[in-house]
Structure formats: C-alpha cells, structure tokens
Amino acid sequence: MMNPAQPALDVQNLQVRYPGTKQVVLDIAQLTIKEGSFTGIVGPSGAGKSTLLRSLNGLVRPTRGQIRINGHPVPPGTTPQQVSMVFQGFNLMPRMSVLSNVLVGRLSHKRGLTKLMGRFDARDRDISLRALSQVGMLRYAYRDIRDLSGGQKQRVAIARCLAQAASIILADEPVASLDPLNARNVMSLLRDLNLEYGITVVVNLHQTDLVESYCDSVVGLSAGQMKFHQPTGATPKSTPDWKQIYA
Q: Which residues form the ABC transporter domain (predicted)?
C-alpha cells in the first residue's frame, strides 16, 4: 500500500566519479521521488541520466552519498529487491521462451542453491504468467523470445519487473529503439501500471512530448548536475521552460 508521506526514492549528496579519475559524472545534492509518481528524466547525451538510474539500482557504485528506498538506506553497490530495471536493449535472454525470461524476475526472491540453479516452483510460474497477462503477452508465454517484435520484447521486460514484485520501475530509454506507435504503447503500459498498482516509475527520455503526456514531474540534468525538478504542467513564468531547454 502506498504511503504518500514517504518518498519512494530519496537521494542525498550523491556523487559518481569515473574509476581511477577525479572526473565527476554525477553530482546531485538532493532528489526526492514521491511514492506512486511517474517521473521523467531529461537532458542531453552525457548528462548523467543513465548513471543516475544505475546508481539507484546498484549497477553503479556511488563515490559518496546515500540512497534511501522506501525510507530505508541502501548499502552502496547493492540492488534493492523492490527496484527493477527496464533497459533500452531489453536485456532479455536469447534462445529462451518468453515465460523463462519473465521467471528471471523471481530470482531476487531465491536464496542459495535454489537461486544458483534457477529453480522455480508452481507459485513462481503462476506469478510470471499473471505478469504476462498484465502486459497483454500471455498468449506468447511459450514462444521463443527471438520471435517477438521490439515492442513485444519491451512488454516482456516489464512483465519481468512485475514478476519480481517491484514497487519501483526504473526505465532507461525504454522506447529509444521503438517506432512512435510502439513507443506510446509501452509508455501507456507503464502509466497504466503506475495508476492501477501504484508502482513508482522513473524513466529516462529524450522525447519531450512523451514526458509531457505521461509524466507527473520532470527532472532536468546537465553535465551531471540536477538543474530542476518540477511538475510537467508548471508554467514557464515561475519555473524553467524545460521543453525549450531540453528539446
């Protein structure tokens, strides 16, 4: 159940440097993402958008700072169970069925040899099949993942997040490789899951029209610095016109 008073993500004094150098690629003093919100992150290439998401998911180890997930501090370099990631390149396992790819999301709930051997029980299968149904891909459950279109693969990747029972989905340019129709279909799916299940969504995007259409708020990054965090409907009179700056 959502707790609007508690942020889903809270970042304090986060800094990331390239290993072995003094070059800072990300430096954010404070960023709070509300639980159940849909937040877009915009900025030019090299602004630090992917680094930010990968830091939140434990794929990048920050040089300093603290990240809190649902009020709890996250040890540096660890991946919180309640956070899942959607990638631009889908990050699915080739030569495996759609269902097998979704079952991977259940590994975060396994321990020891069960996790190492990738053993799944009837409950795991039921949860994964339900996740496929939620994204409209149930009839493809036993198809080879290689037979799917890009838009279908991204739906499978989102189903994997649902099978993980993630309360936060981080999406790193999830529609960059899709045509405009499939891009909107994937964004609509993320929005539907956000509204129906209260899943917090944070998504990196280059398309400002998609940010305006689907996101509640927008974070602007430039050269690793956060320039603003504001509602997408804010007026330029009182806040930066992010659509002009990052178009």
A: 9-247
